[in-house]
Backbone:
């Protein structure tokens, strides 16, 4: 499924939180891990580093960090190939997307963590930029969530106006690979129950033996999905990405106690 996995890092604790998950996925799919570090430059002067220093200092620090991260990879799975890519850009989010495309990455694994900026809440500005226009599937992992050993139970929300089924298709591939199951979930009011039944039956029929269905009563999609995920002890939530993410999708990424895969 994934030939190359891109992991952006600023060498912080939060960005390193995703490494074990990325290595596990790489190990099970034979993917190469590309570690991306973006040296941030000034917006007004893209060639000038925001924190000026001799290039040798950056290179020395990056080499030390890369070796430390490679040691971590080897401890988890020595067979996973790794390399580092260093870029310079004023906007790390856009650079992550550009690098993912140029490297032909099949997956980006990125952390979400607390920010003081109210507009982003638990979605950092860099992660927000990547999930807003994902170049490929993006696995966003909230800093501090419980580690999973596999993706055996995947929740895929389904709604009446849905046009894309990319998340369901990828979830099915992952669940089949992991010998797991996909839970198709619709949150609706009582009056829409019959429509929800028909919608889920249609979707599930295409993936017999893998998909299970559930209709949740309520109006708060994020809260009901989180409750359902807790109930079944889900391992991930897969969301479709089409255009600018809605507040409902951002709420799921912010608050889900499991990794969230955003699929374009």
Residues:
């Amino acid at each position: 499924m994934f030939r190359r996995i891109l992991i952006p890092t600023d060498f912080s604790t939060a960005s390193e939180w995703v490494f074990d998950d990325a290595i596990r996925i790489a190990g099970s799919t034979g993917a190469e891990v590309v570690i991306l570090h973006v040296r941030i430059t000034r917006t007004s002067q893209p060639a000038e580093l925001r924190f000026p220093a001799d290039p040798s200092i950056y290179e020395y620090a990056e080499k030390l960090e890369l070796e430390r991260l490679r040691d971590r990879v080897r401890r988890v799975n020595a067979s996973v190939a790794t390399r580092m890519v260093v870029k310079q850009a004023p906007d790390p989010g856009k650079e992550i997307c550009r690098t993912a495309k140029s490297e032909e990455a099949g997956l980006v694994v990125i952390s979400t963590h607390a920010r003081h900026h109210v507009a982003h809440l638990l979605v950092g500005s860099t992660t927000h930029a990547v999930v807003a226009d994902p170049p490929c599937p993006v696995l966003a992992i909230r800093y501090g969530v419980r580690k999973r050993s596999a993706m055996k139970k995947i929740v895929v929300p389904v709604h009446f106006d849905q046009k894309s089924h990319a998340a369901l298709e990828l979830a099915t591939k992952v669940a089949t690979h992991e010998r797991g199951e996909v839970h198709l979930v619709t949150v609706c009011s009582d009056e829409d129950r019959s429509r929800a039944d028909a919608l889920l039956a249609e979707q599930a029929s295409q993936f017999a033996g893998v998909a299970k269905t559930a209709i949740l009563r309520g109006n708060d999609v994020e809260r009901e999905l989180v409750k359902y995920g807790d109930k079944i002890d889900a391992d991930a939530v897969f969301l479709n990405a089409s255009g600018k993410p809605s507040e409902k999708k951002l709420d799921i990424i912010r608050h889900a106690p499991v990794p969230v895969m955003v699929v374009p």
Summary: The CA atoms of residues 44 and 231 lie 49 Å apart. The beta strands are 4-8, 32-40, 82-89, 107-112, 138-142, 153-157, 181-188, 211-217, 236-240, 260-263.
